[in-house]
Amino acid sequence: MLFCDYVNQTVEGKVNLLGTFDRIFVDKGASTPKFIIFLRTAETLDGELRLTIISPKEKAVAALVFGGDAERKNPDYQQMQLITPMQFQVMEHGLYWFDLSYKDQSLGGVGLSLEPRPPEPESERK
Q1: Which residues pair with 39 in a beta bridge?
Q2: Number of domain units in the chain
Q3: Residue 125 forms part of a structural domain
Q4: Domain with 91 in it: what CATH number?
Q5: Which of 6, 84, 95, 113 could make an SS bond with 18 (beta carbons 3.0 to 4.6 A apart)?
């Protein structure tokens, strides 16, 4: 799973990711800037996947359910891929955990640190 600013896909199916990151500067109470989540799994085609965003206080902020679509099955290609825009309101700063589960079992996840904006240097305030 990766977070990035921009993504496109070639005619041949190659995915191009631009601006990957693991931290965002954002004010409390504001929404994150829009960003893209890219994830790819293997051998998870016969059931739904759930992506849950968990706050630093271990509360679910949002969840996304996808997959399980029989038409997507291709016996020669056993990977599920998701490319989706994301944005959510930040109620607290800290590490947000993006947990991916399949058939009620966690496959793992990745953290996204949401931090306060650093103060501007005095030379830039004038």
Answers
A1: 82
A2: 1
A3: no
A4: 2.60.40.1930
A5: 6
